[in-house]
Automatic annotation (TrEMBL):
Keywords: Copper, Metal-binding. It comes from the Bacteria. SUPFAM superfamilies: Cupredoxins. GO terms for cellular component: cell envelope; membrane. It is found in: Cell envelope. GO terms for molecular function: copper ion binding; cytochrome-c oxidase activity. The keyword RNA-binding does not apply. Coiled coil: none annotated. Pfam families: Cupredoxin_1. Residues 31-133 form the Cytochrome oxidase subunit II copper A binding domain. InterPro entries: CcO_II-like_C, Copper_CuA, Cupredoxin, EfeO_Cupredoxin, NosZ/Cyto_c_oxidase_sub2. This is Cytochrome oxidase subunit II copper A binding domain-containing protein. It comes from Candidatus Fischerbacteria bacterium RBG_13_37_8.
């Protein structure tokens, strides 16, 4: 093997390694997205409380089990229509902390105005601190 051939193989090897790193990172990122299923039916959402951590990306799967419904939140800039008997998927990243209302934004009958829920987005450090406190309490309880 001459020097020229060795350089070509080295470049190809580096390119393959970089490609594998990129593919592994992309697969890991895709796997780390949590899936949340929501059912919309007269006149409720289930679940009606969704807890997220700031920065978390989730895939909502929203099913309308009876009539046309909507899944909307003005504060989070979400406006979705879900046809009767169908489901839609929506990827969402929680970018700010707080409690945000979601509601049905497609008239679905007399109880339409009661069809609400909330998305609670908490700070990641706050969640970690609470988990640590829970572990500490469990350790103390075992003693």
């Amino acid at each position: 093997m001459n020097k020229h051939t060795t350089r070509i193989y080295r470049k190809e090897f580096i390119a393959v390694v970089m490609l594998l790193i990129i593919m592994t990172t992309a697969c890991y990122a895709e796997d780390s997205v949590r899936e949340i299923s929501i059912t919309a039916e007269k006149y409720q959402f289930s679940p009606d409380v969704i807890e997220l951590v700031k920065g978390e990306t989730v895939d909502f799967t929203i099913l309308s089990s009876d009539v046309n419904h909507g899944f909307c939140s003005k504060e989070l800039n979400i406006y979705l229509e879900v046809p009767a008997g169908e489901e839609i998927k929506y990827r969402f990243t929680a970018e700010k902390t707080g409690t945000f209302e979601f509601y049905c934004c497609v008239y679905c009958g007399i109880g339409h105005m009661k069809m609400k829920g909330k998305i609670i987005v908490r700070d990641a450090d706050e969640v970690k601190k609470e988990k640590r406190q829970e572990k500490d309490k469990e350790s103390e309880d075992k003693k």
